[in-house]
Write a structure and sequence with these properties.
By secondary structure, this protein is mostly beta strands. The protein contains 1 helix and 32 strands. It starts with 15 loop residues before the first strand and ends with a strand.
């Protein structure tokens, strides 16, 4: 893509790299492949620790045991090389369901979702499991706590594994984030309620939040409720996004809770957004979401709509004139930079990984890449796509993806993109 270095185009020293450039000081010209049996791994989430090491939560698939699924953690150094002090060459695998009960007649599967590095360096992962202890096709939500070296934290629940509940029902938690006080926020569902959980530094439920650390909202329109992403706001409020779903249909849901865990009546209608873009494109739920410096939110809705909301939960008409932009690619994550630029990570429909930049006005940002976007469609002769990303400070984005096709093993890769002009 014009104006955007690829792994084959290394800029010379003394040049200024424009926004959207691959960072030539990361990996090999901006891209680092993850060595090992990565065709057996599927990326669930990615984050950074305090030392800027890359921590990815993976789903490990064991083809020799009836495709049994497990939790796995990958940790890379800031330059993209494996962290050899972590697990086995940077990888730790955990059979969480098997640890909770015997698996004889069928595999016990794990379904990892979110990962977070705690202020003390421990790593927290969320997801769910099934096992013989549960009825067929039933799952139990789990939180798995690792020490900073990748070993399970045996002081945090049974074998380092916690099984949270709400009203005696399993609690399923998705994305994990820290708030400004270092407490853990988790988006989720009890299958009967929308849920946001808040945990203190020792991972005990915060008794000052909601009901024993759980804020909840009842289902809407008799649909199955659930939040998948959560964002703390500077004023102490908490925004969450997800959907109300049934039989293939999902309605986007965005809500805001006050600092005590009650729905915020000043947001939308009764705490929920009702102002949605017109048309069928919003079907499919809401999220990811991100907060902006003005107290508003940006969110991915449905099949590919980028929407921006005002602090009171209404579509922001100063953004693209309508409050939303219809995307021509499948979005996977969204970020708001300090100056208000919005970055959307995703994959083109048949054309590989894309990062698109939008100015605060909602128009494509012409200073970023080629007319507001960069693409990475081929690596080492194989089709490439993006899975997720994490901000690396205000000036970079670390992206994790995979390269390969049905005739070749997929390889995980990590790339670092510069989001501001950078002198080399």
């Amino acid at each position: 893509m014009k104006g955007t270095p690829t792994p084959a185009e290394t800029p010379s020293p003394g040049t200024e790299l424009p926004p959207g450039s691959l960072d030539p000081d990361f990996g090999s010209d901006g891209v680092a492949f993850v060595d090992g049996p990565t065709s057996l791994f599927v990326v669930a989430d990615v984050t950074l620790d305090a030392e800027r090491r890359i921590v990815a939560l993976l789903e490990s698939i064991d083809f020799e045991r009836e495709n049994q699924r497990r939790f796995a953690l990958l940790r890379l150094e800031p330059d993209g090389s494996p962290d050899l002090s972590f697990g086995d060459s940077g990888v730790v695998e955990t059979a969480v369901a098997s640890a909770l009960g015997p698996c004889v007649e069928r595999p016990c599967d794990d379904f990892p979702v979110g990962v977070l590095v705690l202020p003390d360096g421990r790593i927290l992962a969320s997801g769910s499991v099934d096992s013989l202890a549960l009825a067929p096709d039933e799952r139990q939500g789990v939180l798995v706590v690792y020490r900073s070296d990748g070993a399970l934290d045996l002081d945090a629940g049974e074998r380092g594994i916690r099984t949270p509940t709400f009203r005696k029902a399993p609690l399923f938690l998705g994305r994990l984030v820290l708030d400004g006080a270092g407490r853990v926020l988790a988006a989720g569902s009890s299958l009967t309620d929308f849920v946001v959980a808040r945990f203190l530094g020792d991972l005990s439920p915060d008794p000052s939040f909601g009901s024993r650390g759980i804020a909840f909202a009842p289902p809407r329109a008799d649909l199955v409720p659930g939040f998948g992403d959560v964002v703390p706001r500077g004023d102490g409020t908490i925004a969450a996004a997800g959907g109300s779903s049934t039989f293939g249909y999902a309605r986007p849901e965005i809500a805001r809770f006050d600092a005590g865990g009650m729905l915020d009546p000043s947001f939308g209608e009764g705490g929920f957004v009702e102002d949605l873009p017109p048309g069928p494109g919003v079907e499919g739920g809401a999220g990811p979401i991100a907060g902006d410096a003005r107290g508003g939110l940006v969110a991915i809705l449905g099949d590919g709509i980028l929407a921006r909301y005002t602090p009171d939960g209404l579509l922001d008409g100063t953004f693209a004139g309508t409050g939303f932009v219809t995307l021509d690619f499948d979005a996977r994550n969204v970020f708001v930079q300090p100056e208000g630029r919005v970055l959307v990570l995703g994959n083109g429909r048949g054309s590989g990984g894309i990062i698109a930049a939008y100015a605060p006005s909602g128009e494509p940002d012409p200073t970023f890449g080629d007319s507001g976007r960069v693409a990475l469609s081929v690596l080492e002769g194989q089709p490439a796509g993006f899975v997720d990303a994490v901000s690396d400070g205000p000036n970079a984005l670390v992206v994790i993806g995979s390269a390969g096709d049905v005739l070749a093993p997929n390889r995980l890769f990590v790339a670092r993109y510069l989001t501001e002009a950078t002198a080399r």
